[in-house]
Amino acid sequence: MKLSKLRIKNFRAIGPGNEEKGIEINMMSSDIIFILGKNNAGKSSILNAYDAFINNLTMQENDFYGKNLKLQIEIEIELEADSDEERQLGFFDQNGITSIRKIWVWKTDPDNCSEISTFILFAGDWRKVDEKKDNDLKRLQKEFPETIWIRGMTTSQETVNNLKKLVQKVVLQSLKDKQEYFEAG
């Protein structure tokens, strides 16, 4: 599965933008995406937003743009299916594309925390889904592309260690998935 678009609104350094739509990044169907830019340009905000999206992280006060808790954080991804198996999850249109949007709002009672809602685009309409109950969505989320953070000025050994950890994680997940498949069959 490939990440083809990422849209972020009101998250950390990324405000509402022009026309209140936030920013939209087109990924050009690449397997590898690099984010380069000057200091304080929002690179980390982009990666942290995607990380919050795929891991359903709770937002803190400083995650809201300008610490304005009246705003809602919106993060939306568009995914392209790479295989027929992915297309059969039921979320993809005839072109193998799906969009998922998550919205965080601040709740002041009683815990002062953020609340997340998830929506999936079906036939042009956004529908709210319950991530805890929707098994197809859980399967889809396991396939979300992962981020690899290689910060500037790392040593070659740090880069090798980061890549080794990623490969180990992918291999272990693949083995776990195969074991679950054989146990279920």
Written description of the protein model:
Strands 2-1-3-4-5-6 form a 6-stranded antiparallel β-sheet, covered by helices on one side. It has 4 helices and 6 strands. The radius of gyration is 18 Å and the shape is globular. The chain has 2 domains: 2-147, P-loop containing nucleotide triphosphate hydrolases (Rossmann fold, 3-Layer(aba) Sandwich), CATH 3.40.50; 151-185. It is 29% helix and 25% strand. The protein is α+β, with helices and mostly antiparallel strands and 185 residues long. The mean pLDDT is 83. It has helices at residues 43-55, 84-87, 135-142, 156-184; strands at 2-9, 23-26, 73-80, 97-107, 113-122, 125-129. Residues 1-146 form the Endonuclease GajA/Old nuclease/RecF-like AAA domain. This is Endonuclease GajA/Old nuclease/RecF-like AAA domain-containing protein.
**CATH 2nd-level architecture of the largest domain:** 3-Layer(aba) Sandwich
Low-confidence stretches: none
Mean pLDDT equals 83
Provide the CATH superfamily of the largest domain.
P-loop containing nucleotide triphosphate hydrolases
Structural class category = alpha+beta
Number of domains: 2
Provide a count of the helices. 4
Number of strands: 6
Q: How much helical structure, as a percent, in the residues?
A: 25-40%
Radius of gyration: 18 Å
Could you give the distance between the termini? 25 Å
**Major β-sheet annotation:** 6 strands, antiparallel
- DSSP strand content: 15-25%
Strand order of the largest sheet: 2-1-3-4-5-6
Assembly state: single chain
CATH fold description of the largest domain: Rossmann fold
CATH class of the largest domain: Alpha Beta
Gross morphology is globular
The succession of helices and strands, N to C, reads EEHEHEEEHH
InterPro entries: AAA_GajA/Old/RecF-like (IPR041685), P-loop_NTPase (IPR027417)
Domain Endonuclease GajA/Old nuclease/RecF-like AAA: 1-146
Organism: Prochlorothrix hollandica PCC 9006 = CALU 1027
Pfam family, one: AAA_15
